[in-house]
Amino acid sequence: MAEDKIKTNEPQKGIEGSILQWAPQAWAHLELVRSKSPLIQCITNFVSMDFMANTLLSAGASPAMIHSVDEIPEFTPKALGVCINMGTLTPDWLPGMKLAAEVANQCKKPWVLDPVAAGGTSFRLKACLEMMDLRPSVVRGNGSEILALFKGSVDSNSKGVDSVYGSGDAVEAAKSLAQQSGSVVAVSGAVDFITDGDRVVCVHNGVPMLQKITASGCSVTALIAAFVAVDPSNAVEATASALAIFGVASEIGMDMARGPASLRTSLIDSLYGLDKATALGRVRISCL
């Protein structure tokens, strides 16, 4: 299938550059997801399945929660992209994760890794590093997770899925990890940083209350997989677009929310109903 090309001229630096380049690009990515409805295979944790699937559906993509090794050789080639999340990891699930990544690579389909709590335990870290060896197109994690992958060691201060580092603390590690792995690396936080080892792009959209909604990070990783699936040759731009669009949806949802539970619902509604004028007016992306 021929790739849909999105014009990706080098954005101007600074927040104002988002108005001139990044915001139209983010909207173009969302429009492409809506028009193509890419099939995204998700191997994910039990906590995130519902939110992840509904995020993909509300953006216009088609989710499929397929993780069995008996189905992967036949199903994964049909998907336009794959999202692999290490959240509720068990030894039984790891072979399927590896097989899906291998099949995606063979079929030249992008796949995205979410190394949940990578530094929490030796078993989890080893599994995440083994997945990194399979060269994901994009890796999206919080500061602690990206630092754990870069250092290759368990973090004695780990708080599981909660980061003890800000996203800015992991920028240099993310750049080095991207250079070593060939993957685009995204660090989520108050500001999201996306790098290919050379460029660093910053997304300034989102709300603090996302930290109070379980699987919000997992869900934006799935959205990244959908955006990269429709524009695999521009993974940095597609990743930044996904993070910004999700962040804009959370900002709009926050205007209607009374707390985390209602934000979850209003975020999904806002993503589904997002229009061009709103996206162009609210996307905030810059370059370091």
TrEMBL record:
Cofactor field = Mg(2+)
InterPro entries the UniProt entry points to: Hyethyz_kinase, Ribokinase-like
**Coiled-coil features, chain-numbered ranges:** none
Reactions performed catalytically: 5-(2-hydroxyethyl)-4-methylthiazole + ATP = 4-methyl-5-(2-phosphooxyethyl)-thiazole + ADP + H(+)
Gene3D superfamilies per record: 3.40.1190.20
Instruction: List the EC numbers from the record.
Output: 2.7.1.50
Where does the source fall among the domains of life?
Answer: Eukaryota
Q: Name one GO molecular function term.
A: ATP binding
Which Pfam family, just one, is annotated for this protein?
HK
The pathway that the record names for this protein is: Cofactor biosynthesis; thiamine diphosphate biosynthesis; 4-methyl-5-(2-phosphoethyl)-thiazole from 5-(2-hydroxyethyl)-4-methylthiazole: step 1/1
Q: Which UniProt keywords apply?
A: ATP-binding, Kinase, Magnesium, Metal-binding, Nucleotide-binding, Thiamine biosynthesis, Transferase
Summarize the protein's role. Thiazole kinase involved in thiamine salvage pathway.
**Family assignment?**
Belongs to the Thz kinase family.
Name this polypeptide is given: Hydroxyethylthiazole kinase
